[in-house]
């Protein structure tokens, strides 16, 4: 893919009209592909939207555009699974991992307060939180920041999943791709996330320091509320973070040697 033009194919689906008119978010996704693979990518995203556990959409938008920026290639974060027996244990594990990343306890508490406030607000993207002050700095309201322009070749991902002895599921592929892109920014401390998929209760804490730490339970089955918070350092212009997260094209590529070194 390095020698060909790359296109970003993105999908968003909602029920009750478009997101900006109050529609309930059903699904979203993105594929980076060569021109000849656009049709296959569109079909993949279409299947994802119409078979989602959050419901059947009545609005869908699929668009593609040529990626003009140079693509950065990253090795996937190292992965570890933390099996927990309860929601309380899961969140305590998340808190301990965030502390290990260097996030202060008061900032973690502010993150959980934001989680409680956003539970019924229809939050769609990520919240950016200043790791030192605990202040939200993205000013995006319910829209949040959508991490985008990223992908991982299916065959390469499947080989990685076999090596790691984990299921080669689309949810895992998308989560690690996103987490790796986020963690690669030098001014980002850590990320805490769980999905809005009611059938998927696994979440994670990720950073360059600790890798991708899956936590087997961060919400209850049937809960459609998701949450993503990214802990960032102080910078003069927060738009530099947002531009990286939303527009910097990133592809993951795994080689066996990646398992023996830091990403």
From TrEMBL:
<dbReference type="InterPro" id="IPR005499">
    <property type="entry name" value="BioW"/>
</dbReference>
<comment type="subunit">
    <text>Homodimer.</text>
</comment>
<keyword id="KW-0093">Biotin biosynthesis</keyword>
<keyword id="KW-0460">Magnesium</keyword>
<dbReference type="Pfam" id="PF03744">
    <property type="entry name" value="BioW"/>
</dbReference>
<keyword id="KW-0067">ATP-binding</keyword>
<keyword id="KW-0436">Ligase</keyword>
<protein>
    <recommendedName>
        <fullName>6-carboxyhexanoate--CoA ligase</fullName>
        <ecNumber>6.2.1.14</ecNumber>
    </recommendedName>
</protein>
<keyword id="KW-0547">Nucleotide-binding</keyword>
<comment type="pathway">
    <text>Metabolic intermediate metabolism; pimeloyl-CoA biosynthesis; pimeloyl-CoA from pimelate: step 1/1.</text>
</comment>
<comment type="function">
    <text>Catalyzes the transformation of pimelate into pimeloyl-CoA with concomitant hydrolysis of ATP to AMP.</text>
</comment>
<dbReference type="GO" id="GO:0042410">
    <property type="term" value="F:6-carboxyhexanoate-CoA ligase activity"/>
</dbReference>
<comment type="similarity">
    <text>Belongs to the BioW family.</text>
</comment>
